[in-house]
Amino acid sequence: MSHLLEVEGLVKRYGDELVLDGIGFDMDARDVQVLVGPSGSGKSTMLRCVNRLTEFQGGEIRLDGTSVMAMDENDLRRQVGMVFQDFNLFAHLTAKQNVMLGPRRVLGKSKEAADALAMEELERVGLAAQADSYPAELSGGQQQRVGIARGLAMDPKLMLFDEPTSALDPELIGEVLSVMRELAEEGMTMLCVTHEMSFARQVATDIMFLEDGHIVEHGDPEKLFTNPDNERTEQFLRRLTEHGDGS
Amino acid sequence: MSTGRERRHARLERALLAVAGGAVWLWLAFRWVNSWFGGVVVGPTQPLVPESFVAAATGTGDALGAVANGVPVVAQAFDLLGWTVGMVGFASQYGPRLAVAAWLTVVLTVVAILIGLVIAVPLAAARVYGRVSKYVALVYIELVRGTPLVAQLFLLYYGAPFLSQFIRELPGVGQGIVPGQAVWIAIIGFIINSSAYQAEYIRGSVESVDAGQLTAARAVGLGQLEGIRYVVLPQALRYAIPSWTNELVYLIKYSSLATFITVPELFTRADAVGSSTFAYTKAYVLAGLFYLVLVVTASYAMSRVEDAVAIPGVGNANDRRG
Fold it and tell me: In the predicted model, is pLDDT for residue A38 greater than 90?
């Protein structure tokens, strides 16, 4: 029985620099895998390898048993949603049109069907009332929720979250995390890079601690937070929790 | 915040501009339609005002110019006054001729800028995103921008006889309202020239669209070209409007270079009026007024377009810079 996502011996280099050095882990459907680690440890790069926004030089990533390298990249990305640190909303489109673009141009849905779907997804992230607002008219938290709705509208098997709250003012982080929490409860499979330790502790089914392209420690959230095997993990987590969540 | 007085002034200004602009354009449209139908209402080059008015203005101008001859300063003041009054007569007499020629200037400019735009967009995209095409676009753009427009027109007109011949032999060229081959060659030259400049303006605005948006489009499953088409270009073209307007304004005036390859556009006609009347200054001043009307209209229209397509919350280019 294969897992939903299998990562095996993943190696990524930028020139001579080794960014990911033999990363391996599995995820099953409904898992919430959280990646933590100091900046520059390769977390975001790892995420981008999964939907092939960046190339990797060694190892294997399989989605539903199929190597992502064997898949058409657009076909792969249709099945894997992604949420970005800087939201990356399409500035010239309303919130609803942002969500509609993928279903219309990638899934080939009619305008009416894409419209209805977009409203459904915006409802899901609590932004139905802002459907006709443009990104520049929305707060950061609202923009990020639109970003989540945009990913969800493709009905992905897996959602990637790349530090979704790192660019937000502290008072706006909560609304994004609560949407993510609801998604997890609904059974969405999520691979998240985040510094939000309370979210990780409450929602993650598994936490990986990455440093210098290696998985330093990997396991159950409770264990990692209370009794980590590795001294580096303990130091890192203590520093994060001492300084408050994510700041 | 603007005060009530400023707003009243702005309203008055707009109203005056609308009335003056409306009158000029109504007159231009009349002259064009009239000439297309071979002068159904009045002769194609015949003024709307009676000849006696032209004669009176010219005579009055001459008389005023002669006042106080020999008296320093006063004589010059009367010269200027006389010249201005004479100019009114000159303009009413030769305005119709230039108005008809202005049509060709408008056609040259509008066709060249629009077809140039169609070519410039893929060129700009190739410059930013292309691998091999990037260099093809670069060579084209630099070659065109690096050589004088007049030289390009000469090359097409004199240096490529097969082109002239090919166009001349196309059915209908030079017959009725279809312009002759020189006009077509001028249009081709302006298209090539303008496409290179427009490509550079658009390249700049393509680069100003945050790259993360294209990444996000790709992450949803759109291909590179689709991402450019649906996400980058709709924004880049909006941001390009101010510099594109600049190119339009330049092109209106640069179209006068077509005179060197015998195209009977506005400047050619003004030149002809000058040589037949020996009033070169008046002829060129009159031509200048026509260019001014075209340029002011073009930039006004484009600023309206810019406002109309501005992205809510982002504003137009000025706001972005601000």
Answer: no
